[in-house]
Design goal:
Helices cover 33% and strands 34% of the residues. The chain has helices spanning 9-25, 32-46, and strands spanning 4-7, 52-56, 59-66, 71-77, 81-89. The chain is globular, with a radius of gyration of 13 Å.
């Protein structure tokens, strides 16, 4: 069963900022972030539990790594949809405040 993916406002801002930076600073792979993001979203639609569990406070999320760009996609699974909460650099050494 394929689920609908919802991108939160925060995640949309993250995506726009990261994609803009990637296009400007990684000219040999300008579309890598966008392509990895699309692949991850397609995978989550089909297999939402594939991400690693990530708990902050009393809230439960999952995250999946975009390997080439080294960003984590943080999301929650709802009954009929997947809600992407944030996109955050995996090299920061800490997760986002969700």
């Amino acid at each position: 069963m394929s689920r609908r993916v919802i991108i939160s406002k925060r995640a949309q801002r993250d995506i726009e900022r990261i994609d803009s930076w990637w296009v400007q600073n990684r000219q040999l792979a300008a579309d890598l972030f966008f392509l990895e993001l699309q692949d991850a979203l397609d995978l989550l639609r089909r297999q939402p539990t594939i991400g690693q569990r990530y708990t902050t406070g009393s809230r439960n999320f999952r995250r999946v790594l975009l390997r080439g760009t080294r960003y984590h996609l943080y999301y929650r699974i709802a009954p009929r949809q997947i809600v992407v909460a944030s996109v955050w650099s995996a090299v920061r050494g800490r997760g986002p405040k969700l």
